[in-house]
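Re: your question about C-type lectin domain-containing protein

S., sorry for the slow reply, the queue was backed up all week. Below is exactly what I fed in.
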Amino acid sequence: MVLQTGCPGGFTKFEGACFKVYHQIVTYDQARQFCATKGGLLAMPKDNKTDDFLWKLKNAADSGGYFWFGLSDENWEGRWMWEDGTIHNKSADWSNWREGQPDNHKGDEDCAHYNSQAEPGWNDLPCSDKAAKFICQTTGVSDDISSVYQ
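Result:
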């Protein structure tokens, strides 16, 4: 039997997932790769409660900074995908894009981030910009206790 026992060190638990802010300013792909080394993905604010939690987490770390999270349309313009491979349907799913966003400014903005404005909201930036800190998401730490009951 496997039990969820909590979050890895430094991560904060919310709604069954674990999140951690990282302060390095990196590209989207660098952030994605770093989260993978921690056994996770870039954070995915798929609902209002998680988005609100992540906004507060990022503001506690740096209210004036940009932070990548796990949503992009870099593989197919206009088709936004979460890091776990699920499609984000802008018209049917919950989202928090700022007014006029995503706008794919200059035809090169494919990765989502939280910006430094006072109110929560999403914006798109070029994935290759070394412009943002990031938030990783992982599942809880598991312990296999089946050997205890043998």
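The two ends are 11 Å apart (CA to CA). Residues 2-149 form a domain with the Mannose-Binding Protein A; Chain A fold (CATH 3.10.100.10).

Happy to talk it through on Thursday.
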